């Protein structure tokens, strides 16, 4: 695996985090869950990937998200948000707001539509990203940052590529049955060790993985209790009021996620625009992600009292939101302005790019989506 070398300072920070995690492994009798490893690699104060100071997004970071490709993405989301606000209240809550570009594009388009947002609240764990958001959104006085969730919420909740960064547990099917893949230290390096499933994880496996008994030995996959708990919180927030959450991410319904051919799971790391499968390479300097089990997410929100309003591909959602009309605001004769937006739109919509792998889950209470979006609903496939 050939990846760019980190700077001396970045390498020192990663080594400090590795020592911290290794000490945690020792304190816990020689192994920790992969979820605990992932949580520390991403969120350890001052050293984790999202809590450190390195640039995460864009050409100088490790990956690029949809809002960074084109303002049309946020403008299309704003159109759906406007419909929800018309049935609720003009408040928005965004989780993991990235560089702040999505918030800026959503607020700009809502203003153009004549919708005044009373409050745009952001929950952000990354200090570096929060600073970038504050700079990008300095002209929007309705934006504020929350350190804790409200008890109730009415309005629109946005979460773009949030669920995939939540810690996951790893499990492996052996000849003796299912085992948990935990993290240990062997010869000075992190490695996996398979141990008996704890009862709670065994219950999660049975609940989340269809046909788990028939999957072959050697099959490795992820379980998502943290993301499920988050969806339960979102569902409970919405169940007590009127509004909807729009969650966009890459993933599958359960019957596709746990297909026998997907035998190595979906865990993936991102480092300087290189994707690779080794989460033990430079902890703290790389993003660690897993695809989203949208069936589990929808059920968690539903169990908490919210309704599943829609599930569809990102392409269907953006087209239903009118992103094609938004593109035509730019004159095709103006090639210099039009072609970059058309190329970005192709990446957002193409089945070979983000259009089909990325999905949209909408959950809420007391909200009806437009007939165009409702016609694209594939919730029956969950």
TrEMBL record:
Coiled coil: none
GO MF annotations in UniProt: protein-arginine omega-N symmetric methyltransferase activity
Keyword Transferase: yes
Gene Ontology biological process terms in this record: methylation
Keyword terms of this UniProt record: Methyltransferase, Transferase
PANTHER family xrefs: PROTEIN ARGININE METHYLTRANSFERASE NDUFAF7, MITOCHONDRIAL
Protein name: Class I SAM-dependent methyltransferase
Species of provenance: Pseudoduganella flava
Taxonomic classification: Bacteria, Pseudomonadati, Pseudomonadota, Betaproteobacteria, Burkholderiales
